Amino acid sequence: MNKNSSNIMALAPNTSNKRETVCIFGTGDFGRALGQKMIQSGYPVVYGSRSTQISSLIPKDAEVLSHAEAAQKAAIIIIAIQRQHYNFLTPLAEVLRGKVLVDISNNLKLNQYPESNAEYLAQLLPGSKVVKAFNTVSAWALQSGTLDASRQVFVCGDDVEAKQMVMNIVRALGLTPLDKGSLLAAQEIENYPLQLFPMWKFPIFLSLGLTAFFFLYCVALDIIYTYIYENKDFSFFIAITIPNRVCPVMALILLALVYLPGIFAAIIQLYRGTKYRRFPDWLDKWMLCRKQLGLIALAFASLHAVFTLVSPMRAFVSWRTSKGIISQVLNNKTEPLNHTNAWLSDSYLALGILGYFFFVLLGITSLPSVSNSVNWREFRFVQSKLGYLALILCTAHTLVYGGKWFLSPSAYKWYLPNIYILSLIVPCAVLVVKFVLILPCIDKPLTQIRQGWERNPKYSE
Ligand code: NAP
Predict the structure, then answer these.
(1) Tens digits of residue pLDDT in 310-360
(2) Best of 24, 27, 30, 89 to mutate for ligand 1, by most ligand atoms within 8 A of CB?
(3) Which pTM does this prediction carry?
(4) What residue ranges define each of the domains in the chain, with the CATH number in brackets?
(5) Where are the transmembrane segments (predicted)?
(6) Probe ligand 1: pick from 81, 136, 144, 189, max atoms within 8 Å of CB?
């Protein structure tokens, strides 16, 4: 009993720890939302405003004073004002001398000004200690309470003590500060909220372009061709048949595109005989979005699995099955089981299931919570070795399924190859070149280059 109560005492917060007053310049959306959150966290808040009249929107318990009066009451001043109005601060330079100014501003465009807003503020008020923080948090998230401790607040500044003071406030608000170093990092931090899925752009545009191309390709060969030459209307193929052709093709090609840049990188390193020269920009960018390409590929593979599972429910499939049964009944002849076909269909299904299993495993290990819990070697083993295994299985799945069309002349409608033939070009090329690269006579020099050996060292002794 006693032991428990002493534990409770030890865990009880230290309520005597009074928080320092924080001053906020600006009673706009962000100033009010941040002030409210600070008051909830126990900070006395004083606003510096052009108008000292208290409006009903201002958080209860907050004081509103003129800028100069408010600044005198606190060591930390949060500037919740747009950058274009910063020059009103210049006459306040003396009052603000030695104070910590927190710049929370954002811009409307990437790299809108030559210097970051925080650096501009530091130039205007050289006697103050400027810290950049909170700009990646929105007023809406502060007000609606959708912020949680996993939300990072990027902080940077030249004065270590000032930065610590701001990081303490961030922690007190239940958020996680992330020290990004000196004020030089401010421009990068200001650009974060303006970025729109930067790593996803290329994979998404590529997927949309390829999907549109393959979709139209299938429409032309499976619907238009059949309509013109066989006078059959298969327009309903648009709903399930064609998507179920496009999805596996996209999954396979995108998975191969995850491994293709690694192949290019190896060839370039072998050719140059060094790893100390930068790859071309396009290759760097491609390598950086491999995870996104892989995840989109996984989404296509999952759609393919769902489309395949619903296939038996389709009217077209049950019509075809019953047509086969009726023709056997009418001819009074039971078709014997075609063992070759049985083997082929079981094999491609098994290869597809195994390929999908490894595909999902790759997707799971790319989640930050999982990838953070494995070491670099384990991560590489899964992403590289098991990734190639998934590519081999998925390529074999397509080969076994679509292989029969390779030599059949009916597969070349309008002299165009079947979509499965097209889908195998990139994965087969990747696998063949990878096989060549792992031959000992090539793998050995490549491994040496990756360990730092150079064919023509620039700085030889
Ligand atoms: P806002 O609603 O337009 O408020 C800005 C405040 O600045 C005004 O309420 C006003 O306060 C003050 N002000 C306006 N003109 C002034 C001038 N000529 N001289 C001095 N003070 C002036 O803007 P906000 O949305 O709160 O944004 C404020 C800052 O926070 C911006 O830099 C923005 O980039 C940044 N930010 C906003 C969000 C967000 O979600 N809104 C998120 C991150 C960062 P008084 O009337 O009290 O003087």
Answers:
(1) 988 888 888 888 998 999 899 988 888 889 889 999 999 999 999 999 999
(2) 30
(3) 0.72
(4) 22-194 (3.40.50.720), 200-451 (no CATH)
(5) 204-229, 249-271, 292-310, 347-365, 386-407, 419-442
(6) 81
